[in-house]
Design a protein that fits this description.
This protein has 138 residues and is of the alpha/beta class. It has four helices and seven strands; from the N terminus they run E-H-E-H-E-E-H-H-E-E-E. This is tRNA threonylcarbamoyladenosine biosynthesis protein TsaE.
Length: 138
Amino acid sequence: MTKNYTLDELPKIASEVIKNAKNNVLLFYGSMGVGKTTLIKEIVKQLGVADNVSSPTFSLVNEYHTKNNEKVFHFDFYRINDEEEALDMGVEEYFYSNSWCLVEWPNKVENLLPLNAVTITITANENQLRTIELSNNE
């Protein structure tokens, strides 16, 4: 799936990501400020989380609960120094928990990622447009 979108179309794009993802581990790639957290906030909202969603830049992971009491984990590995830090926090248990895991800066923990995770790449274009590319890795 590859689509161009504006901020106004974010709810539709988030819905398509949820519908087209063949795994609950979503890896978000894109440069700083491209809109990874903004898209994740909308996805988390559509999954039924009522909590205030923010990027877990300093805590590495935020845990949210849906209205159906399911867990959603939001990771931000931007500030991580090495994969050992992620291992120490038990990242593999999260990834294989069957809960939604939304991962920013997955390149920082590349050797720990599930092979069947969904890759989402966001790029900025002219006129405030973004391009999203979703790849199911099987």
